[in-house]
Design brief:
- With about 500 residues, the chain is of the alpha+beta class.
- The protein has three domains: about 230 residues, Glutamine Phosphoribosylpyrophosphate, subunit 1, domain 1; about 180 residues, Rossmann fold (3-Layer(aba) Sandwich), CATH 3.40.50; about 35 residues, no CATH class.
- It is about 30% helix and about 25% strand.
- The chain contains 19 helices and 26 strands.
- Strands 3-2-4-1-10-9-11 form a seven-stranded antiparallel β-sheet.
- Strand 2 and strand 3 form a beta hairpin.
- Helix 11 packs parallel to helix 13.
- It is globular and about 70 Å long.
- The N terminus and C terminus are likely disordered.
């Protein structure tokens, strides 16, 4: 049975603007375009002639800033904002960003999208040195490292800090005289810069936010880069040369909006190619294709086009119900599934249906969808998933806490099919995913991170690796230590070890 490993899990959105007369309102619009990335809380910090002020709260953006005066009181021509992903045990305003720090020599605001794999050990070290933390978010760690750096300038202190933290991160900082964005050496999280017609510069997690505020896309921030925006314009610097692109494949599969582009690849087009490839790899004899709204509609379109089947609207989504994937308890997830989807009997009754979804995490949603279609009279239900099976936790910022919650980690495809009550089930292959996205980067898996599917983590897991080892029995730990020294038998990034019969097993 796979070891149950906890992971800090958040997927957020950041947005910033420098040089706009109504920066807070523009940031509000930008964050609204990124609301799908975080629905637990939101905040905005403005820079008014070098003085920073902010407001943050729990809930959706429209709930946090529901009063007009809240925005109008945030005066300034520069601002950064953040929407936060729902996480278990962290529903406190102390964790809502951007964080605003007031020091004797100035102010600084900080927002973060991602997760640091060495946060616990750094935090313990800092606390032993007298540091006091006001939140349980790993974001605060960076500011403590910046303040302890002996470098002469803020940018150099930031570079020093960035070289100490590991994992996935897209940081957005505001100082009195600059807005700074930073991306981890693997580029797990997307971050782009745009320019408005009045000369203002915008930084955003997704290009859809640039479009929303009327900014022209300039470029993606690349792994290991920082972008510094000030009154003179912007410039790019590197804080490390040790980079290897591994953008989170779930951005293309699920998280990003279909009208966004990441490293030049449009998300909708990538999902449509996934659907086409899925149809080629796993065809089904059926009467129609139905996509699960909304993130699977692009893949369903591709599957239908490649298979020659009609693409029908057999499922209707209540647009006012939040994603079940981010509900903090299983009970709420199941309630959300019952509330948000309904099958169209007039479309599916008596028909053989191919239902295309983007992923299966716990299986709750997929099982309910199959039941809905059966109850609506579907003759057959064939489930096709436009991504490989999720078998491993993510430690770079996605809401996958334990392998025990990943149905594919402990069930075969046939067993999952039986659990869902489907007539057949098939997943997209890893190769199919990589080729469909088509980044073609000079890096493993074409520049994608696919660790959630095959356990091949592109970085050391830091504190989580030790947690994994601690979960093993003494005999298992001894085998791991033995084979870790034999590169032909052990890949440390994959947590691969051999049992007593020397049969290779993967443990997550």
């Amino acid at each position: 049975m796979p070891a149950e490993l906890e992971g800090l899990h958040e997927e957020c959105g950041v947005f910033g603007v420098w040089g706009h007369p109504d920066a807070a309102r523009l940031t509000y619009f930008g964050l609204h375009a990124l609301q799908h990335r975080g629905q637990e809380g939101a905040g905005i910090v403005v820079n008014n002639d070098g003085v920073l002020d902010g407001y943050r709260g729990l809930g959706l953006l429209t709930q946090v800033f529901k009063r007009e005066e809240t925005l109008t009181q945030l005066v300034g021509t520069k601002a950064i904002g953040h929407v936060r992903y729902a996480t278990t045990g962290s529903g406190s305003i102390d964790n809502i960003q951007p964080f605003l720090f007031n020091f004797h020599d100035g102010q600084c605001a900080l927002a973060h999208n991602g997760n640091l794999t060495n946060c616990p050990s750094i935090k313990e070290r800092l606390e032993n040195q007298g540091a006091i933390f006001h939140s349980n978010s790993d974001t605060e760690v960076l500011m403590h490292l910046i303040r302890r750096s002996a470098a002469s300038t803020f940018v150099d202190r930031l570079k020093d800090a960035l070289n100490q933290v590991h994992g996935g991160f897209a940081y957005l900082l505001m100082t009195p005289d600059a807005m700074i964005g930073a991306l981890d050496p693997n580029g797990f999280r997307p971050l782009s810069i745009g320019r408005m017609t009045n000369g203002a510069y915008v930084l955003a997690s997704e290009t859809c936010a640039l479009e929303t505020v009327g900014a022209e896309f300039v470029r993606d921030i690349k792994p290991g880069e920082i972008v510094i925006v000030n009154d003179e314009g912007y410039h790019i610097e590197r804080y490390t040369a040790d980079v290897q692109q591994a953008i989170c494949s779930m951005e293309f599969i699920y998280f990003a909006r279909p009208d966004s582009s990441i490293y030049g690849v449009n998300v909708h087009s990538a999902r449509k190619r996934m659907g086409k490839r899925l149809a080629a790899e796993s065809p089904a004899e059926a009467d129609m294709v139905i996509g699960v709204p909304n993130s699977s509609l692009s893949a369903a379109s591709g599957y239908a086009e490649a298979s020659g089947l009609p693409n029908e609207m057999g499922l209707i989504k209540n647009q006012y119900v939040a994603r079940t994937f981010i509900q903090p308890t299983q009970e709420l997830r199941e309630q959300g599934v019952r509330m948000k989807l309904s099958a169209v009997r007039g479309v599916v009754e008596g028909k053989r249906v191919v239902i295309v979804d983007d992923s299966i995490v716990r299986g709750t949603t997929s099982r309910r969808i199959v039941t809905l279609l059966r109850e609506a009279g579907a003759a057959e239900v064939h489930v096709r998933i436009a991504s490989p099976p999720l078998r491993f936790p993510c430690y770079y910022g996605i809401d996958i806490q334990r392998t025990s919650e990943l149905i594919a980690a402990h069930k075969t495809t046939d067993e999952i099919c039986d659990y869902l009550g489907a007539d057949s089930l098939a997943f997209l292959s890893v190769d199919g995913l990589v080729e469909s996205v088509g980044l073609h980067a000079d890096a493993p898996y074409g520049g994608l991170c696919v660790a959630y599917f095959n356990g091949d983590y592109p970085t050391s897991l830091g504190d989580y690796e030790q947690q994994f080892l601690d979960s093993l029995s003494p005999a298992e730990r001894e085998r791991v230590a033995h084979y870790a020294s034999n590169s032909s038998a052990y890949n440390g990034n994959e947590f691969t070890y051999y049992d007593t019969e020397h049969t290779q097993e993967k443990v997550a």
